[in-house]
Amino acid sequence: MSTTEPATRTEGDGTPEAPTSGRKGPGTRLIVLLLVVVVVAAGFVVFAVRYRDAHSTTNNLRATGIPANVSTSLAYLMGLSPVPSRPAPDFTLVDQHGRTLSLSSFRGHPIVLEFMDPHCTDICPLVSEEFVDAYHDLGRAGRSVVFLAVNVNRYALSVADVSTFSSAHGLDAIPTWHFFTGSFPALRSIWAHYGIAVQSRGPTADVIHSSIVYFIGANGHERFLGTPMDDHTKAGTAYLPANQLSAWGKGIALVSQDLFSQR
User: Fold this and answer.
1) Are strands 100-102 and 111-116 parallel, antiparallel or unpaired?
2) Residue 73 exposed, middle or buried by CB count within 10 Å (0-12, 13-18, 19+)
3) Cα(183)–Cα(186) distance, rounded to whole angstroms?
4) Which of 182, 180, 154, 185 is nearest to 165 (CA)?
5) pTM (predicted TM-score)
6) Of 116, 190, 108, which Cα lies nearest the Cα of 153?
7) What is the 3-state secondary structure (H, E, C) of 192-258?
8) φ, ψ at 28 (rounded to 5°)
9) What are residue 115's DSSP bridge partners?
10) Which among 219, 196, 222 is positioned nearest to 207, based on CA atoms?
């Protein structure tokens, strides 16, 4: 996934899509910059409208409803916010092992859900590391927390794509890890239900998409959102300081522990 590449065109239903040509004309850099601003702004609007009823942190870094076991500083680092308790949109897809499963089949377990590009070289590998850290931080409870991702790359829809990514980033170490994929129409519908903006420029380009962690209670209701982050070296390589990666892992584990009570 990349957070710096521009939108190119949008289908009639508002879903950003890949361009029909790779040609570049004069003023490309300026156009790219303007389009990136538009995409980011549009994503923010989708997010704000969907969660306009959530508690505000404008005047207080700690929103009402943050789990007591999560410090204010950690909640701020994670961009953690409570959301109105409502059923998470259900879906049925195929995971990295070729098994067809639905979100509702995990009822009774806390769920940590992200949206990832299996060919991502940006933030997705960092979130993967945070998931693995969270699983280890949970100890024995880790086997009861379900870690999920939904594919956002329309050009990498195969089970092999999500399986390869899972293995490459150590996610297979989590026994409850599932990286879901399916047909493009099915995935696009799920992105819309979760307010995930997705923009693909082609089969060899990184996918621009919203990076949001959904924390879903054991009762199947959305409870919290987190907003992963990354930074980049001068060479453009995505990274996050080790202490922040570790803190994110601990934060995910702490919020997951709180979700056990959401039955």
Assistant:
1) unpaired
2) exposed
3) 5
4) 180
5) 0.78
6) 116
7) HHCCCCEECCCCCCCCEECCCEEEECCCCEEEEEECCCCEECCCCCEECCHHHHHHHHHHHHHHHHH
8) -60, -40
9) 150
10) 196
> How do residues 54-67 score in pLDDT, each as one tens digit?
444 344 467 789 99
Residue type, 232: H
Nearest residue to 181 via CA among 122, 116, 93, 119: 93
CB 253 within 8 A of CB 137: yes
CB 180 within 8 A of CB 162: yes
Extended strands (E) in 145-201: 146-151, 177-180, 198-199
What is the amino acid identity at position 17?
E
Q: What is the pLDDT of residues 82-125, one digit of tens each?
A: 999 999 999 999 999 999 999 999 999 999 999 999 999 899 99
Whole-angstrom Cα distance, residue 200 to residue 152?
9
Distance in angstroms (rounded) separating the CA atoms of residues 168 and 240: 19
pLDDT, one tens digit per residue, over 161-202 is 999 999 999 999 999 999 999 999 999 999 999 999 999 988
> pLDDT, tens digit, for every residue of 1-44?
444 333 333 333 444 443 333 444 445 444 434 444 444 444 44
Ordered structural domains, the chain, with CATH: 9-259 (3.40.30.10)
Determine the angle formed by the axes of helices 242-259 and 123-138, rounding to 10 degrees.
60
